[in-house]
Design brief:
heterodimer, A: mainly beta, four-stranded antiparallel β-sheet, 56% strand, B: mainly beta, five-stranded antiparallel β-sheet, 11 strands
Chain lengths: 118, 118
Amino acid sequence: DARVTQTPRHKVTEMGQEVTMRCQPILGHNTVFWYRQTMMQGLELLAYFRNRAPLDDSGMPKDRFSAEMPDATLATLKIQPSEPRDSAVYFCASGQNKDGRFSGNTIYFGEGSWLTVV
Amino acid sequence: RKEVEQDPGPFNVPEGATVAFNCTYSNSASQSFFWYRQDCRKEPKLLMSVYSSGNEDGRFTAQLNRASQYISLLIRDSKLSDSATYLCVVNLAHRPSNSGGSNYKLTFGKGTLLTVNP
């Protein structure tokens, strides 16, 4: 079964430390999303890429967050320096987008990276 | 106004009950609509797409009213296994890409928690 793979699954870090989350999208998918989920805000779109090009990162705090896609098999989300309010579940999702529709009408999520900043 | 708004919930219903979830979206240019399901501590997964004519999948019925910018999900004869968070999702054309065509992003509502009790 093809699936989106995220690492680390769980991370506890101290405030001020750098955190890097990695995502391997499903092979052949051309669109990759980073979402953050908290109880208060629900699922928020942080950034997304199509064919490795960043299309929208307006949901991301620019001063501390950065998202990149160095190649088609790897997307990264970095927080530097991390703060307690960054504690959340970070989901990566991928899909094959053609003419505005996703193949299978869906994007596929990884299991998430559960981040706690103390 | 948030892009996608849902009933805050939570909903607690007995087995066999019928339960309805509602969702409104703010952008009339939204292209397509979905319901996702998220189990506790798991990633969201597509439950069903929502079509203009309304559609049914077993005990689940989804409806769309474009004029009112309103989406609904009806679950009949609810089962214990239906307990989950239900997320309303809207696919919105983001902006024209430089390479032609449009880019689309999925925006999620905060979700409504359903608990089906024995």
